[in-house]
Design a protein that fits this description.
binds 6-phosphogluconic acid; 6-stranded parallel sheet; 243 residues; alpha/beta; 28% helix
Length: 243
């Protein structure tokens, strides 16, 4: 029996990303009525880059950015100026175009020793992000999925990171061995709203496996199940062709 997932599917990647930008705007408007600051974790990789551009172009003056704090679900241990830097990419595509205090931006890696940076990021998460069920609780967790089924930087060889009580971990990319800092599975699943943004035919079979419940336990993305929040998948028709 397949799992029932809440999904929004549009024909093209541009269309689904435009829809996600609008839904994020609506979500933020609704949540900000409470008057509290919101804590958002952004994913990396290439898929969300168009989302950052749309938010910068279309929502630059519509969102009260100073009420939002941005963290990252994961980060590569590379300099901000590297094209691999998730923070650097978001800064170039979004944060450089909007009015947001630097103190609201919480990069996971700032160029120093990775172990020291891991401890610094853990401290920053604990300092800023409110706790729910003894774990940091993000208001919005944006995730992508790799073609091996990883999410954040939790790769198939590290599914233990969905069981650990540690809130972040230092890992190595299984192929490139690139060092990365990642938020762990219990923090991901403790979020109030989790969003997967997945596009492209190359991910269709993975999406099918996860949605049909086959082998979904072998893919980290299949282990994303909110404990008390909501999960929604945003996909283009290519990524969703098999479900
Ligand atoms: C990262 C991400 C990672 C990403 C997937 C999908 O730092 O790489 O956070 O989990 O979301 O690898 O990447 P693409 O969007 O490039 O396919």
């Amino acid at each position: 029996m397949g799992k029932l997932f809440n999904t929004t599917i549009k024909k093209t990647a541009d269309a689904i990303i435009a829809q996600l930008a609008k839904d994020i705007y609506d979500f933020l408007q609704d949540e900000l009525k409470s008057g509290k600051q919101l804590f958002i974790a952004l994913s990396g990789g290439s898929t969300p880059q168009c989302l950052f551009t749309i938010l910068a172009d279309k929502y630059k003056d519509a969102i009260p950015w100073s009420k939002l704090h941005f963290f990252w679900s994961d980060e590569r241990c590379v300099p901000f100026k590297s094209k691999d830097s998730n923070f650097g990419t978001a800064q170039r595509l979004l944060f450089d175009s909007i009015d947001i205090p630097d103190i609201n931006l919480h990069p996971a890696y700032t160029g120093k020793d990775p172990h020291a940076e891991l401890n610094r990021y853990i401290d920053e998460l604990k300092t800023y992000v409110s706790v729910e069920s003894a774990m940091p609780c993000f208001d919005l967790m944006l995730l992508g999925m790799g073609t091996d089924g990883h999410t954040a930087s939790i790769f198939p060889d590290r599914k233990d990171l969905f069981k650990t009580e540690d809130i972040c971990a230092l890992v190595n990319h299984p192929v490139t061995q690139q060092q990365r800092i990642t938020i762990t599975g219990k923090v991901i699943n403790n979020s109030r709203q989790i969003i997967f943004l997945v596009t492209g035919k190359e991910k269709a079979s993975l999406v099918n496996s996860i949605f049909k419940g086959h082998d979904s336990q072998i893919y980290p993305a299949g282990l994303v199940q909110p404990v008390h929040g909501k999960l929604k998948w945003y996909m283009d028709s290519d990524a969703a062709e098999s479900i």
